[in-house]
Amino acid sequence: MKNVTQVIGFTALLLVLSCNTHKGNTEHSHDGESSHSHNDYFGSYTLNDSNYETQTTVTLNGDTRTMVTNALPNHKTGDFPNSGNPNTISAQNKTYTFPVTPKYTGQAQWVREPGVALNGIKFEPGTAEVVVCDTGENYRVEALQDLIDLGLDFNHAHVQPTGAYHYHGTPTSVIEKFDTGEDLVHIGFAHDGFPMYYSKSGKYKPSFIAVNGDREGEDCTYDNPHHSIDVSVGGHHDGTFTSDFEFVEGSGDLDECNGITLNGKYMYLVTAEFPYVSRCLMGEVSQEELKGPPRDQQGQPGGAQEGRPTVDQLFERMDENNDGKLSPKEVKGPLAENFLKVDANNDGYLTKEELKNMPKPQGQNTRRRN
């Protein structure tokens, strides 16, 4: 009996030493059913990583999942600033809320920021970069392309002027960090509450295909605060621009928001192919999450909007790089045509105050429907 007791005690000591050896610098605690599993991020958890200064805490209260984070990634990144991205990663101190029980509507709503990774870093697949042609065509530049160096690192991410690090495509290090050995890796939550996954096998294909034919446009340029380049947009649709793709229902496994129902549960997938990260949401989502211009029938920014937005709403939708001001390439329509008139201090940017103080055009009270 004494020998058995000694063996049990020795075994327990080995288990304790083993757990302490593998604990590392990352604290990870859970509440709920899977309190002993490091694979369940549907309950409450905390990610504190002293190596990267990551501080992310998620708590559940009723039907609300709340994430409080400093938005610093818990993994290696590329070097910032770099030649394509002049910004430095800095803490953001964000609070996000998600419904614990999401409600599927089946009505796609375009969003600029569809969701947040488990480590507190946001997904923002689109860009603010635009190629403008003298013949009237505008082409929104994709983040993953070879035309313009946007300074993306190996996580398909870079940094906004605010210091916010964010993912434009498959977050390589996140997938590695949260891989449990299954094909589907849980990597985040969309703002409507549905989970976001990545399939390591790539078995679930998006339903977007390249548009047939060639692009049109002459004397096209790309401008940013540092330089201007001439761009030839002619040729086939090769994925450089968002408009190079169109959604064709049934051409793949996923819907127009890169979502799918598996085993009776709806989820979004981040994919290696366009749209990479969902550009829209299929569940109920608060109006404050619907950032960006309205969507047209092809799912791209643009199209008719019901009612007139406030100046604050209009400003937020157009300020795609979140720097608190509007550049000429960010504004659209009549505002673009009257940019110089609205720019009261002639600094080349529009502020929210300048928009609020701009003169009302003739016929503003006439409501037009498309």
Would you summarize the structure shown here?
With 370 residues, the protein is α+β, with helices and mostly antiparallel strands. The chain has helices at residues 2-23, 172-177, 311-318, 333-337, 339-342, 352-356, and strands spanning 26-27, 45-49, 54-61, 64-69, 94-99, 104-110, 115-117, 122-123, 130-133, 138-140, 157-159, 165-167, 184-190, 195-199, 208-210, 214-215, 220-223, 228-231, 235-236, 245-247, 259-262, 265-270, 280-283. It has six helices and 23 strands.
Written account of the structure:
With 370 residues, this protein is α+β, with helices and mostly antiparallel strands. It contains 6 helices and 23 strands. Strand 11 (157-159) and strand 12 (165-167) form a beta hairpin.
Count of beta strands: 23
| Spatial separation of the terminal alpha carbons | 86 Å
Q: How is the biggest beta sheet arranged?
A: 8 strands, mixed
- Measured by DSSP, the beta-strand proportion falls in 25-35%
Helix fraction by DSSP (H/I, runs of at least 4): 10-25%
Oligomeric state of this protein: single chain
Uncertain parts:
1-38, 292-308, 361-370
Question: Which class do the helix and strand fractions yield?
Answer: alpha+beta
Order of the strands making up the biggest sheet? 11-12-8-7-13-14-22-21
Alpha-carbon Rg, integer: 23 Å
Q: Summarize the helix and strand pattern as letters.
A: HEEEEEEEEEEEEHEEEEEEEEEEEHHHH
The 3D shape can be described as globular
Specify the number of helices: 6
Mean pLDDT: 83
